[in-house]
Amino acid sequence: MLSGSFLFAADKPNILFILADDLGYGDVACYNEASKVQTPHLDRLAKEGLRFTDAHSPSTVCTPSRYGLLTGRMPFRTGYRGVFTGVGGPCLIEKGRLTLPQMLRNQGYATVMHGKWHVGMTFFDAEGKPIHQNGLKAVQRVDFHRPIPDAPIHRGFDRFYGTVCCPTTDFLYAFVEGDRIPVPPAGLLDRSTLPKHPYANDCRVGMVASNFDHQEVDGVFLQKSIDFLEQHAKDASGKPFFLYHSTQAVHLPSFAGKDYRGRTKAGPHGDFIFQFDDHVGQLIAALKANGFGDNTLVMISSDNGPEVPTVRDMRTRFQHNGARPWRGVKRDNWEGGHRVPMIAWWPGVIQPGRTAQQTICLTDVMATCAELTGCTLPNEAAEDSISFYPVLLGKQGERATRTYTIHQTMSLGIAIRHGDWKYLDHKGSAGNNYRRSGAWGMKEWDLKETDPEAPGQLYNLAKDPGETTNVYSKHPEMVQELKARLDAFKASGRTAPER
Asked: Fewer Cβ in 10 A, N or C end of the chain?
């Protein structure tokens, strides 16, 4: 039995982190009793493990959230706005910065990643000049014979097989292995061969490789992870492993694999959620089949809330709300944009069937993994990472997790949470356009501003979890306190205490 705050080397658990893309709090049945999609494997892991109800992604979109997870640092500190597409870069993770995989590699772990990277890579043209641009024209300039100098294997992973950005959205449809693309794209994608439905439209015309099937990408990632587990069980090295499995599901376009189409009564996106759940089940089965089931910490979460077109369409056609019960969706700084499902499963360590109400952020994964492996993080690393290891052990009363939590959008709209209070240092959502109609508009869900002259927003989530009533002007002392604390955290460069 593992106990205490330090584990001897022989007791270090394997770690599997599964990161979904755009999986909303209300998309998982054990978080939403009104869900129209069955998620039996996630539900079972929650029953056998720990379900967090107040977990948050570092940002409300892909690129910055992944930076935060992999570095333990809030991404707004980089100054980068937006997300990468195509061959945009360079890598947002600075050279020399300690990452989650590098920290675990220093602790004796084999570190492997399969799936979506989306933190930037550097590609070169025929003259050897870095491109660092988004879009199709930039992809068409790439000399694919040249190695990538800032791939995941240069940021702490021993092995990587996956994609540069969103696998089926972002102009470059090819797999990266290590720091090369073994099968370069050979021509433009013919979108006429792909499914047509309301969730199929976020697939840009780009360059595609001959071995890249838009509808089976997650199946490729799944098989790579299963193959790794089988091989690691055979190599007899005794090394623990960190496997980061980062899926395409359930980011648009919703292209479920052939074995999953029509499996739900909630349309193509419902089928895609169902596929993600089944892949989670297959990964757990592979852990057990290869002898890792009793000494592996599994964590499952999402990089932000659900996407606009899926929430709009599924609310009306299927009465399924992927953001339920929160206001906002992906990109928004309201809870629906960054409050995410988070399940932890660790047989023999995590007491089954528990629910944790502590506020955590995915930046906290790094400090948590450091504590459970006996690593002391340096002050210049994981500056916004606070360990929730005591929560995993059921000792949450022994030490508080985080007192303050920062939230951000892709436009660098910033909010801060303290207990029941949440202060947004901006007007509106700082994300989606709530005056816009159509597939990407949220006009139908716009709420009348209750304090229209206020420059920011203040909500008490205990009394108003839907963030419907802005009490900024009614509680100026709380606004002043939280804004001062936010400014101090910005200036100090950290929210974690000095180590």
From this structure: N
Strand ranges inside 209-366, DSSP E:
241-246, 296-302, 339-345, 354-356, 360-361
Chain Cα centroid distance, residue 140: 29
Strands (E), 282-324: 296-302
Q: Report how far residue 248's alpha carbon sits from residue 214's, in angstroms, rounded to the nearest whole number.
A: 10
**Shared domain check, 398 and 478:** no
Q: At what angle do helices 40-48 and 267-289 cross, to 10 degrees?
A: 50
Enter the pTM of the model.
Answer: 0.96
Write the pLDDT tens digit of every residue in 184-232.
999 999 999 999 999 998 999 999 999 999 999 999 999 999 999 999 9
143 and 42 in a single domain? The answer is yes
Q: Is residue 363 part of a domain?
A: yes
Same domain, yes or no: 279 and 349: yes
487 three-class SS: helix
Per-residue burial over 386-397, b = 16 or more CB atoms within 10 Å of its CB, e = otherwise: bbbbbbbbeebe
CA angle 304, 309, 315 (to 5 degrees): 95
CATH of the domain at 473: 3.30.1120.10
Please state whether beta strands 14-20 and 421-424 pair in parallel, antiparallel, or not at all (unpaired).
unpaired
Asked whether the predicted pLDDT for residue 446 surpasses 90, the reply is yes
Domain containing 372: what range? 9-403
CA distance 313 to 331: 17
The residue written with tokens 């959205």 in the block is 169
Q: What is the CATH number of the domain that holds 64?
A: 3.40.720.10
**Got the DSSP string for 195-218?**
--STT-------EE-TT--TTSHH
Domain final residue, candidates 403, 428, 456: 403
- Counting every residue written for the chain, the total comes to 499
Question: If DSSP codes are grouped into helix, strand and coil, which group holds residue 115?
Answer: strand
Same domain for 341 and 464?
Answer: no
Please identify which residue in the block is written with the tokens 């290590």: 178
What six digits make up the tokens of 306? 């659900």
Question: Can you tell me the distance from the alpha carbon of 463 to that of 55, in angstroms, rounded to the nearest whole number?
Answer: 19
Contact predicate 249/274, CB 8 Å: no
